[in-house]
Amino acid sequence: SFNILLLATSMKKTRVAYFLPDSDTPFVIQVAVPLESITLKDILPRLHISSTNQRNGLSTNTSLDYFVKHRASNENWLGGDTQFINEKIDDYDVPLPNIDGTVVIRILNNS
């Protein structure tokens, strides 16, 4: 049982910054999933969107869209000015990109 305890305490965490709709101030949380494998499905239960949404399960909330910010590599159409783009997350099970070790999520109302 000592090994199990050791494993639990050495679990890697991922820093997640997220922006709620109509807000420019991010919330920053730590999610106990390694950076290489973290998905939106891992993050959703931790987001403080509203107590109603949390009771009902956030993944069933279709009035919100989730975007992940990442470096715009090989996006020539942007020109040289924009370093980052926000891309809509359609698959909640795909590992998310990060910026210097932080996953950045923007949440928008789609109504």
From TrEMBL:
Q: Which residues form a coiled coil?
A: none
Question: Quick check: keyword Nuclease in the entry?
Answer: no
Alphabetically sorted, this entry's keywords are: Wnt signaling pathway
Single GO biological process annotation from the record: Wnt signaling pathway
Q: Which InterPro entries match?
A: DIX (IPR001158), DIX_dom_sf (IPR038207)
Keyword flag Amino-acid biosynthesis: no
Q: In this protein, which residues make up the domain named DIX?
A: 11-111
Q: Which domain of life is it from?
A: Eukaryota
- The identity of this protein, by name, is DIX domain-containing protein
User: What species was this sequence derived from?
Assistant: Adineta steineri
